[in-house]
Each structure stands twice: as C-alpha cells, then as structure tokens.
Please model this.
Amino acid sequence: MSAWSVLELRPCEWCAFVSPGGVSGFRLGGNQFGQYGRGKFVQITKAGRELLDKVLPDHLTTEETILAPRSTDERNMLAQLLSKLTATAN
Model:
C-alpha cells in the first residue's frame, strides 16, 4: 500500500490500519467503520501530503520491523489490548 492510498482512508480507518490493523491484519472496508466507532472525512493539505510522503513509509517500515517477530496469536493479543486501551481513552 502506498502512502497515497492511506490518505484516502477515514481517520478511524487509518487508526485501524496503523495500529490494531497493522498488528492483526484486520482492515475496515467500505462503510464498516460505523460498526467500530466514529469517523469523519478530512482533507489533507498539499503540505500535509508532502510531509506524509516523507514520514509514513519509514513509520510503516518501523511498525513492521517491530511486529515481524510476533506470531499471529501475539499480534491478535496486542490488537485486543490496544482496542481496550482505546476504548477506555474515549
């Protein structure tokens, strides 16, 4: 997935992609986000897109490096724990 395709995600979908989705492999599609939380469409400025183009690939590489040694069960457990933390933070 390129940095540009991530920009087309709603904020809650992006969170699912970057955090629990990156951990568990779960991805929201279509309008599924309504089942999992609130969401808003946002528009990123040209400067914002340029910044994301610079930082997002490194961020995603770092995330995968951290998660690569983890088993599927460990990733699922981490995703569940992150979901609990997120739920209590809201």
In short: Residues 16-21 have pLDDT under 50 and may be disordered.
